[in-house]
Amino acid sequence: MNVKAIIALVCGILAVILSLIATSTVLFIVALVLGILGIVFGAMGMKEAKATGTGKGLAVAGLVCGIIGTVVCAIMFACVVCATTAIAGALGSLG
User: Fold this and answer.
1) Of 10, 14, 26, 36, which residue is the least packed, with the fewest Cβ within 10 Å?
2) Helix/strand/coil for 24
């Protein structure tokens, strides 16, 4: 059993879910950390899968989910920052 691959998959899935529903900075940070952990454990799981022959699919899925979660988190965070800046600028020009 490839535990690192399972950890990668869990971290990657949680990163994707949290990055899509994040409503605060804390959730964005948690999603980003989970995405990075998914990538790291996915790479370690692939290395272990090569040695033992088990869990390669889980490791690849965890790696992919970690990458997607990290990218989506970064895009969503950038959108929130841009929207906040635009709203602050619009409110500043009113008065």
Assistant:
1) 26
2) coil
* Single-letter code of the amino acid located at 54: T
The continuous run of DSSP H or E covering 88 comes out as helix 56-94
Between CA 15 and CA 8 the distance in angstroms is 10
Predicted TM-score (pTM) of this structure: 0.87
Contact of 78 with 86, CB cutoff 8 Å:
no
- Helix, strand, coil percentages for the chain (3-state, nearest 5): 90, 0, 10
Residue type, position 12, single letter: G
The alpha carbon of 41 is separated from its chain's Cα centroid by a whole number of angstroms, namely 13
Q: What is the pLDDT of residues 19-39, one digit of tens each?
A: 988 878 888 899 999 999 999
